[in-house]
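Researcher: Next sequence.
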Amino acid sequence: MREIVRCFEDVLETLQRVHARGEKTTLLIGAGCSVSSGIPQAHELVVQIEQEYPRAAQRAAARTYEAYLEELSPGERRELLGRFVREARVNSAHLAIAHLMKIGLGVTHFG
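Model: Next structure:
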């Protein structure tokens, strides 16, 4: 498979052409965007939940991030995830997304 590498200006030019035609685009970002900001991956959070909230982990239907979060109260989820969000760092992907939004090529609504 051939690797395709584009700089931000190349992507911006493409998005501007698509926008000018009235077409919509979708931006997909993966876990790497969060990880590079200091937020752990889901499997790391699973281990942390097992250590900090062992009873919630025991109640979970499966050993998955989603199942574990379901067993935490809203306050416990907020406390666990809030630690990472408070210490997260803005990265270049965040800046690029903010720039796209500023010039009118970003998300206008969710849903």
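Model: The first helix runs from residue 8 to 20. The two ends are 34 Å apart (CA to CA).
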